[in-house]
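Hypothesis: this fold can be encoded by more than one sequence.
Test: take the structure tokens below, design a sequence, compare later.
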């Protein structure tokens, strides 16, 4: 059966990566194979950081696989989704020959990874429809088939525009693009929506990769842990392209703590709070005369068009509130993106934009 491995760069198909000390290890009691110090550092409370970590910590991989509903072989742990984006582009795109497809306005890292790899960028802009932005999936398919696109990045819920792509739309695209391109569904904000993960399509589509992160809903942006969920064959290829020890032990430990039952329960409560606040802020902003339009959002931010975006940005900044200026992005010349904060923070945003009656 020909499969997703046919899409991997031919020059990397038999590439085994770096043979690290931890990779080949059997059981031992005296470790003299990696030039580590035999003593821990006096500042190391765990007393264990003098040894290189497991490249893919088994307990962490198992816990994350359970969280995301896949098997451990379908999951690669990396330094945030950012690393997964980079690995996918590097493993699949021949420099100077293959292309990456994106649907702007969208998260900037896809274009950065393409540029660094020397892959060209094909853009299929989102359509700004009455109900919000929409991805033109038919045009995505036709563009992939017409050009040498190896990686398609779909963001769902999308940053900065907030909309979802439905699972039937994704499934259709995966079938159309089988043997042509890997479809990457970036679900960095999925926790804030009611939609199921595209990971449920993995059993039938080996050209699918799903990105999840601990950086948003789980509140661990500084730990730099994210995962790619894809076919075991592609996981193995990506692993060979990755750094020898990509998961720092303190970060793995932090994530394990965040995956306990009580921590997950608190995360779920906070997600619920953000969703309620998002709806409250959405309606409050829509009432303001200085606001031209607020897009519905399935994520933890709102994309807002202002009559005078520059003035709104400065007004918020003068009150110490920093939001994301989106005006340089195509089609968003009057827009700011506002992350949903805690209830007090959101109340301040509204009162400043109303004319500072705090
Ligand atoms: C924030 C974000 C991520 C998360 O990146 P990490 O490297 O995991 O922190 C991924 N994709 C999108 C679209 C994002 O907005």
């Amino acid at each position: 059966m020909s499969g997703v491995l046919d899409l991997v760069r031919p020059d990397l198909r038999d590439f085994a990566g770096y043979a690290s000390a931890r990779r080949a290890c059997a059981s031992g009691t005296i470790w003299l194979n990696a030039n580590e110090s035999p003593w821990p550092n006096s500042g190391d409370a765990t007393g264990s950081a003098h040894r290189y970590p497991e490249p893919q910590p088994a307990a962490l991989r198992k816990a994350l696989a359970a969280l995301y509903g896949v098997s451990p072989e379908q999951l690669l742990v990396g330094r945030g989704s950012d690393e997964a984006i980079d690995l996918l582009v590097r493993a699949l795109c021949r420099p100077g020959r293959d292309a990456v497809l994106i649907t702007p306005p969208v998260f900037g890292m896809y274009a950065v990874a393409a540029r660094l790899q020397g892959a060209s960028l094909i853009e299929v802009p989102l359509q700004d429809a009455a109900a919000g932005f929409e991805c033109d999936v038919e045009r995505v398919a036709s563009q992939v088939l017409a050009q040498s696109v190896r990686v398609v990045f779909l963001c769902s819920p999308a940053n900065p525009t907030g909309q979802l792509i439905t699972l039937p739309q994704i499934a259709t695209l995966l079938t159309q693009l089988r043997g042509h391109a890997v479809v990457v569904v970036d679900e960095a904000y999925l926790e804030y929506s009611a939609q199921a993960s595209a990971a449920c399509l993995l059993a039938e589509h080996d050209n699918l990769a799903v990105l999840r992160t601990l950086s948003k809903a789980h509140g661990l942006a500084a730990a730099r842990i994210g995962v790619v969920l894809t076919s075991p064959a592609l996981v193995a290829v990506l692993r060979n392209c990755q750094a020898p020890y990509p998961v720092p032990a303190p970060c793995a430990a932090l994530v394990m703590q965040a995956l306990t039952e009580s921590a997950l329960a608190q995360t779920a409560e906070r997600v619920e709070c953000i969703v309620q606040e998002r709806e409250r802020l959405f309606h409050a902003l829509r009432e303001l005369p200085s606001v031209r339009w607020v897009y519905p959002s399935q994520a933890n931010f709102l994309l807002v068009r202002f009559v005078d975006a520059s003035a709104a940005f400065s007004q918020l900044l003068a009150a110490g509130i920093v939001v994301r200026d989106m005006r340089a992005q195509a089609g968003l010349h009057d827009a700011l993106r506002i992350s949903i904060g805690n209830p007090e923070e959101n109340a301040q945003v509204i009162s400043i934009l109303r004319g500072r009656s705090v």
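The mean pLDDT is 95. Residues 80-82, 107, 155, 159, 186, 188, 213, 215-216, 221, 226 surround pyridoxal-5'-phosphate (CB under 6 Å).
Hypothesis status: open.
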